[in-house]
Amino acid sequence: QVQLAESGGGLVQAGGSLRLSCAASGRTFSSYVMGWFRQAPGKEREIVSAISVGGGSTYYSDSVKGRTSISRDNAKNTVSLQMNSLKPEDTAVYYCAAAQSSSLNFVYTRRYAYQYWGQGTQVTVSS
């Protein structure tokens, strides 16, 4: 069982930056692929980024590639998402998610692969 808690959301002007953090409970954090998803009003939840168990592999959606960086600290059970050059279309609730994996370098990009989810944190980008 993994419990996830996001923080760092808020209101920011277009072009600004935010750093989202996710704290995980449990002693097996290093066994999970970690992902960030987002859901805007009226839209489906979509993946933003993911990072492998060992941190050596990452994935970014086309919509955030080049503006976003994911990282994890297995010693502190945290995963972070640094978002720069934010746009109004980045406005959404952002969710941290965990998917158990035995592979050091594999990342999951599909929502159904993730077993555990946080409650979400709101990111609002004003124009």
What are the key terms here?
mainly beta; 4-stranded antiparallel beta sheet
Please, could you describe this protein's structure?
The protein has no helices and eleven strands. It has 127 residues and is mainly beta.
Give the number of helices: 0
Assign an overall shape.
globular
The biggest beta sheet reads: 7 strands, mixed
Series of H and E elements? EEEEEEEEEEE
The value of Rg in angstroms is 13 Å
> Average pLDDT value?
96
Low-confidence stretches: none
Structural class: mainly beta
Fraction in helix = under 10%
> What is the rounded distance between the termini?
40 Å
- Tell me the strand percentage band: over 45%
Overall number of strands: 11
Short description:
The protein is an all-beta fold. Helices cover 0% and strands 48% of the residues.
Question: What's the arrangement of secondary structure elements?
Answer:
Elements: E1 4-7, E2 10-13, E3 18-24, E4 32-39, E5 46-51, E6 58-60, E7 68-73, E8 78-83, E9 92-100, E10 116-117, E11 121-126
Parallel strand pairs: 2-11
Antiparallel strand pairs: 1-3, 3-8, 4-5, 4-9, 5-6, 7-8, 9-10, 9-11
